Amino acid sequence: MPNENKSNSITDGFHLVVDALKLNGIDTIFGVAGIPITDLARLAQAEGIRYIGFRHEQSAGNAAAIAGYLTKKPGICLTVSAPGFLNGMVALANATTNGFPMIQISGSSDREIVDLQQGDYEELDQMNAAKPYTKAAFRVSKPEDIGVGVARAIHAAVSGRPGGVYLDLTADVLAATLDKDAANQSLVRVVDPSPRQIPDPESIKRAIDLLASAQRPLIILGKGAAYAQADDAIRSFIEKTGIPYLPMSMAKGLLPDNHKQSAAAARSLVLSQADVVMLVGARLNWLLAQGKGPHWSPTAQFVQVDISPTEIDSNRAIAAPVVADIGSAMSGFLAALKPGQIQPKAAWIDAIAERKQHNTERMAARLDASPSPMNFYSSLRAIRDVLANRPDIYVVNEGANTLDFGRDIIDMHQPRKRLDCGTWGVMGIGMGYAIGAAVVSGKPVVAVEGDSAFGFSGMEIETICRYHLPIVVVVFNNGGIYRGDDVNRSGGADPSPTVLMKDARYDKLIEAFDGTGHNVTDPRSLTKALTVALASGKPALINCVIDPTAGTESGHLQNLNPQSQVSSGKNN
User: Fold this and answer.
1) What confidence category does residue 118 fall into, taking pLDDT thresholds of 50, 70 and 90?
2) How far is Cα 493 from Cα 485, in angstroms, rounded to an integer?
3) Which of 100, 119, 147, 357 is 20 to 30 A from 267 in CA distance terms?
C-alpha cells in the first residue's frame, strides 16, 4: 500500500511532456519510435493523442509541417536521437523555409558524455546542430522545465512568420521523476501565441493611394495569404478593386482558378507590364525571379503585405510596405477603401483577357490531343476532369515535369487544397504531405507524383495502408528523372544517371500491404481507375505509364541546371 501511494504522488518526464502537449490542444503526433522516446509515443497514444508512426523521420516531419500549415497549430514530429534527429531535420528546415509551424521533439543522449565527446550512444549535440536551420531551438535539462520548454516552442513556431522549432529532451529528463503536484504547477497553458499585428493606418493609406494611381496594377497571392485563412477578406478586396491577381502555386484556390480576374494564364504578360504590384504573403524570391530581370518591368512599384519587417526591400525597393498579419492588413484595406477609388484601366484588363484567351486555346489543343503512349498533358487532363466535381479533395503534387504541368492543368477551387514542393522545390514531400493532410482533415487526398519524386518516400504507402487513409497515389511513370530515354555516355552497361527501371510496376508495391493497385496506359483507363479508387475511400496506387520521351530536363528550371560545355575525356 505505501508503494501504491507513492506511485500516485509522483510523475515523470514522459507524462509531463504528454500533459504539456494536451494542455495546449495538441492532439496528433507524427513520428518514428525508438530509443529513447518509445514510451513517450506509447503514453501519448494511451492518453488520447493520436500517434501516426512512419517508416522514415523525414516523412513524419513533412506530415507535421503540412499539418501545421493546414491547422495554424504547430505540427509535432517525434524522433529518436542523432540519425533520427538528422532525418527529421530536413523536414524541419523545409518547414522553416516555407513558414510552416512545426515542432520537432527528439530524445537525446546524456549531456555529460556528449559535451565531453566521450562516445555515447548516438552522440550528437542536437540543439546546436539544429539552430542554423530552425526558427528556434531549445533543450530541456530538468523535468520541471518541460512545461516552459513546450510553451516556448509553441510561441516560437506560430508567432510572427511561422517556422520550425526544435525541442531537445534528454533521456535523463524523460525518465526523471518528481512530485505530481509540483509537476502540474510547472505546466504552462499558452495564451494567444500568435497575436494580431495591426498595420499602421498610414501604411494602408500609402498602399491604397499607390494602387489607385496605377495604370496596370497586379496582386500576387503567396502561400502566406493561404496560411492566414483570411479568405473572405482577400477575395472581397480583389473583387471590389477589380485588380487582376496571380496566385502562386499553393495560393491557388483562394479564389477559384476560373475566376474572371485570375491572370494565371497570362503570367508573363502581367509580370513584365504591371506598373504597381501588390504582394500578399508572397516573397520576391527565386520563384518570382527576385523581382528582377526580363520577367519584370524595371519601373514597377511594389506594395508588400508581410508579417516580417525584415522581408521588406529584400530584393526590390518596396514603395508601400504594410507590416502586419495578413488578416488584419486586409481588414484594414477594406475599411479604408472608398467605392471606385481603385479602377484598373480597361486597356489593361482587355490586354490580359486577350493573352489569356490565346494561351488557354493553345493549352486546350495540347490537352485535347490523345497521343499514344500518354504524355503529361493527356494524363493530367484525365485527372483534372475526375477532380473537377470534387473540390473537397486535397491535391499533393511533386516532381519536375509532373509538378510543372500539374500546377497549370489541375484547377483548384478551394483554398489550401493544393500542397506541393513550395519554396525550396524539395522532392520527397509527397507521402508525408498526403498523410498529414488526410489525418488532420479526414478528407480524401490525391497525390500526383513523378516516379523519381515518389521514390524518396514511397515506403510510406505502408503507413497509408496501416492507418487505412483515403489516399490515392498516382505515379507518373516515364522511367526516369525528368525522362527515361537518356543513355550512358560511356557506352557501358550501367543505366544513365537519370534513368530508372524500365517498365516498373509501382502498383504492385501497394498490393503487398493490402492496398489496391492499378496499372494504366491510356487516359480512359486512368479516368476509370481514379474514379473507382476515390469512390472506395481506401488506399490505392495508380501506376500511370507515360511516354519515356515526355518531359524536359529539369522541367521549367532548365536555367538553374548548368550544363558542361566541355567534351568528356573519352571523346577528346
Assistant:
1) confident
2) 15
3) 100
Fill in the DSSP letter of residue 144: G
Q: What is the largest CA-CA distance in the chain?
A: 87
Q: Which three cell numbers stand for residue 34?
A: 525508438
Q: How far is CA 95 from CA 77, 255, 429, 485, in A?
A: 12, 25, 11, 35
Answer for the pair 168, 137: CB distance below 8 angstroms, yes or no. yes
CA distances for 84 relative to 123, 294, 396, 532, angstroms: 12, 44, 25, 38
**Helix axis angle, 401-409 relative to 346-368, nearest 10°?**
120
**Residue holding cell 492588413?**
329
| Cβ neighbour number for residue 461 with a 10 Å cutoff | 27
Report how far residue 564's alpha carbon sits from residue 481's, in angstroms, rounded to the nearest whole number.
Answer: 18
Task: Answer whether the bond into residue 36 is a cis peptide, omega within 30°.
Answer: yes
Q: Classify residue 497 as exposed, middle or buried by CB count within 10 Å of its CB (0-12, 13-18, 19+).
A: exposed
| Helix residue ranges per DSSP H, 119-274 | 126-130, 146-158, 171-175, 180-186, 201-212, 223-227, 231-241, 267-273
Determine the 3-state secondary structure of 245 from DSSP: strand
pLDDT of residue 556: 75
Here the cell at position 279 is 504582394
User: Which residues, 6 or more positions from 180, have their beta carbon under 8 angstroms from its beta carbon?
Assistant: 8, 9, 10, 11
Grouping H, G, I as helix, E, B as strand and the rest as coil, residue 196 is: coil
User: Is-contact 291 380, C-beta < 8 A?
Assistant: no
* DSSP 3-state of 176: coil
Torsion of the alpha carbons at 323, 324, 327 and 330, rounded to the nearest 10 = -40
Average pLDDT over residues 396-405: 95
pTM: 0.95
Closest CA to 90 of 130, 126, 137, 122: 130
How far is the CA of 403 from the CAs of 173, 187, 303, 453, 527, in angstroms?
44, 44, 29, 10, 19
Q: The C-alpha cell of 174 is what?
A: 524523460
pLDDT at 1 over 50: no
Question: Tell me, what amino acid is at 73?
Answer: K
- Measure the CA–CA gap between 195 and 434, rounded to whole angstroms: 30
Q: Would you place residue 2 in the very low, low, confident or very high pLDDT band (cuts 50, 70, 90)?
A: very low
